[in-house]
């Protein structure tokens, strides 16, 4: 949480909204992986020594429970690892939606961004030919897959946690 606060404290003149979102997304994914791996040694030790004083049956049950725990945890970590790798690829690639709009295209569209209702700042034209500010459309695509005007699907994926949010799910084990 402290790292996220430090990212948010960086002035917007130094870091764009898009870059800040990528940093927040990477930080949250790393936090999710850490949250999943941190309790593993503690739980494993507890399960192996489960009912150790009962003799062989208690020790066998403890080892079986520990193996079941490890299998379930490794399956969950595999899923989180693939999500983390995809997030790192997005972080390093610095993807942008659409292409740069020309001045003539902006004039034809009315010189006003439909999202922020201000003059275009770094205008981007989407595949549906609608034009938006780069920052406005980046914020929109943090939550949606489609164009704000015509609802044509522009991107195949909504990236989670670019707005600094975190997972609401309680992790028990």
From TrEMBL:
Membrane topology: Multi-pass membrane protein
Record SUPFAM superfamilies: RING/U-box (SSF57850)
Annotated Pfam families: zf-C3HC4_2
Listed GO biological process terms: positive regulation of ERAD pathway
Membrane-spanning parts: 59-78
Domain of life of the native organism: Eukaryota
Metabolic or biological pathway: Protein modification; protein ubiquitination
Stretches assigned to coiled coil: none
Residue span, RING-type domain: 113-151
One GO cellular component, as annotated: endoplasmic reticulum
Keyword Zinc appears in the UniProt entry: yes
EC number: 2.3.2.27
GO molecular function: ubiquitin protein ligase activity; zinc ion binding
InterPro entries with a match to the protein in the record: RNFT1/2, Znf_RING, Znf_RING/FYVE/PHD, Znf_RING_CS
Keyword line: Membrane, Metal-binding, Signal, Transferase, Transmembrane, Transmembrane helix, Ubl conjugation pathway, Zinc, Zinc-finger
Catalytic activity: S-ubiquitinyl-[E2 ubiquitin-conjugating enzyme]-L-cysteine + [acceptor protein]-L-lysine = [E2 ubiquitin-conjugating enzyme]-L-cysteine + N(6)-ubiquitinyl-[acceptor protein]-L-lysine
Subcellular location: Endomembrane system
Signal peptide as annotated in the record: 1-17
Function in brief: E3 ubiquitin-protein ligase that acts in the endoplasmic reticulum (ER)-associated degradation (ERAD) pathway, which targets misfolded proteins that accumulate in the endoplasmic reticulum (ER) for ubiquitination and subsequent proteasome-mediated degradation. Protects cells from ER stress-induced apoptosis.
Name of the protein: E3 ubiquitin-protein ligase RNFT1
Gene: LOC106536486
